[in-house]
């Protein structure tokens, strides 16, 4: 998002053993980052050590892809397609590192990484142990959650995916994607066609990083889709989706229907921030924004949704030394 202050010190760890050594040496004042795409740091910065994971091994072994945490996610999608392996194609174009993907069970267009993730190797900062966790242990299930979210205890060192040996995609599950491909929900098409369609759709919504396009200067979706045990009366018209922990509503729908349109908020920070002009769920830096500007707009939108629907939205991104108050 191109906001936030400096770190006291930065270590770029280029192999798994360097990651383990750097994390063990850093003590408690540590921030682990991958691509930094889902992170907001306060304007005063971070008074500790940042370990940037830059490990780079990617091995295709039969139907398995074993990837270091530092590998850029979209490189994995491309490598899988090149190897004739299907299952990741709908996750094309998501920014960030592979190690970042299990943290919030990254997902898009009806697909999530947990569907093909076989195991992760983690460093447990509490015990100091390096362990391999299978999928069941990772706590996936509910929207954008895992055992690794909202805790600094675990550092993801590498991830193993088990994919389908096929040039054809996993069944298409998302209506807008099926429409774009001209097929029905449940159909399979060449996996490369899914990648192309997803990149087109994401590009149209400003969800593929593009340095000159301020709509992409964001953390992606700023707020999580709320999962509620009871939907308030005021929100009963909102589209509802099943979730293992209750009913999931669309944060974008709530924001839009609470009166916030695309491009809203130009008066915040003297024009330095606004909602994306293509997508109300992304708060964007129009150039020269501070974290305080971003927080002011995010807090205002959250208050508007709270007032209209009685639902408090939660940020999806990691907030470091900044908050919505
Ligand atoms: C334009 C845009 C579009 C996006 N679209 C989507 C989308 O469609 N779907 C989706 O799910 N997300 C999306 N995101 C969010 C983001 O891409 C993902 O959350 C991504 O996985 C973050 O990875 P990262 O390496 O950048 O994480 P960072 O931003 O570096 O870190 C995010 C959090 O994960 C932790 N972390 C990172 N790496 C590790 C590791 N190896 N071990 C332990 N903790 C770690 C950090 O400490 C931090 O708490 C989007 C973001 C942007 C900017």
Automatic annotation (TrEMBL):
Pathway note: Cell wall biogenesis; peptidoglycan biosynthesis
Source organism superkingdom: Bacteria
Catalyses which reaction(s): UDP-N-acetyl-alpha-D-muramate + NADP(+) = UDP-N-acetyl-3-O-(1-carboxyvinyl)-alpha-D-glucosamine + NADPH + H(+)
EC number: 1.3.1.98
Listed InterPro entries: FAD-bd_PCMH, FAD-bd_PCMH-like_sf, FAD-bd_PCMH_sub1, FAD-bd_PCMH_sub2, MurB, MurB_C, MurB_C_sf, Oxid_FAD_bind_N
Any single GO CC term annotated in Swiss-Prot or TrEMBL for this entry: cytosol
Active site: 221 (proton donor), 316
UniProt subcellular location: Cytoplasm
Keywords: Cell cycle, Cell division, Cell shape, Cell wall biogenesis/degradation, Cytoplasm, FAD, Flavoprotein, NADP, Oxidoreductase, Peptidoglycan synthesis
Cofactor(s) recorded in Swiss-Prot or TrEMBL: FAD
One record GO biological process: regulation of cell shape
Residues that span the membrane, as ranges: none
Domain FAD-binding PCMH-type: 3-166
Main function: Cell wall formation.
HAMAP family the record matches: MurB
Family: Belongs to the MurB family.
Name listed for the protein in its UniProt record: UDP-N-acetylenolpyruvoylglucosamine reductase
